[in-house]
Amino acid sequence: MNALQRTGRWIGEHLVLAAGLIVLGYILVPIAVVMLMSFNDASKSRNLYAFQGFTWDNWLDPCKPNGMCASVLRSIEIGLLATLVATIIGTLAAFALVRHKFRGRGAINSVIFLPMASPEIVMGSSLLALFISAGLGGRLGFWTIFVAHVTFCLSFVIVAVKARLGGLDSNLEQAAMDLYANETTTFWRVTFPLVFPGIAAAALLSFSLSFDDFIITNLNAGQTVTFPMYVWGAAQRGIPMQVNVVGTVMFLAALALVVGNQLASRKRKAA
Questions:
Q1: Which residues are 54's β-sheet partners?
Q2: What is the CATH number of the domain that holds 160?
Q3: Which residues have a Cβ under 8 Å from the Cβ of 40 and sit 6 or more positions away?
Q4: Are 221 and 145 in contact (CB under 8 A)?
Q5: DSSP string, 96-107
Q6: How crowded is the C-beta side of 54, counted as CA atoms within 13 Å?
Q7: Residue range of the domain that includes 235
Q8: Is the pTM of this model over 0.70?
Q9: What phi and psi values does residue 40 have, to the nearest 5 degrees?
Q10: 54 — phi, psi (to 5°)?
Q11: Per-residue pLDDT tens digits for 215-238
């Protein structure tokens, strides 16, 4: 094998890895900019998007912009509640769709994808019309946002848990019952631990979608201000650098969860 052939083989073996690293770097560039700007001393210039100098002030006083921390806490509250309800209902629905045969199951499987495929403006306006027709037009706020977020998070939970259930080996459950375990014990000792990674992934996805949503929330929020809505309003006057602090904290928290889950999985496999 000559040098040209060896070079071509090396390129072929490492091309996918190189492409993956390039794409990963491209995705991480905006995150790196957000983290950098969280240390930006924007008080030195009117240009908020140019790095003027390093400072800890943004981290030491993240609630300095009026109303920002309140909007962050409100988004977290709505996200946690919507995630809890959507995860419970979606998990039960996924088990019903995978484990049981009933009339209309095929139609339900098709309808599940509609909230995922529909544009957010269509879904948001439809929910707004529903709330108005129900006489809630003058009471839009925390709970209408909560209902809206549960509605669009359900589809993602069902799809994620269904995928996990679809790859589950039923022989494991049958083996547990052959060892005289009843249905309840089999579920909690065998089925649930195997499905839990899918449920956890669905919950994390639901929270991120809820925390990040703007279009559906804006249409159904009334006078309630969530963090994305605060950023949108602040952008018209100049985004405070503390917004980047919140973004950095959320990214690091998500990264810590992923790394912690991977380390825990390795420990379980090693055990």
A1: 40
A2: 1.10.3720.10
A3: 48, 51, 52, 53, 54, 55, 58, 241, 244
A4: yes
A5: HHHH---TTHHH
A6: 1
A7: 66-240
A8: yes
A9: -80, 130
A10: -85, 135
A11: 999 999 888 999 999 988 887 777
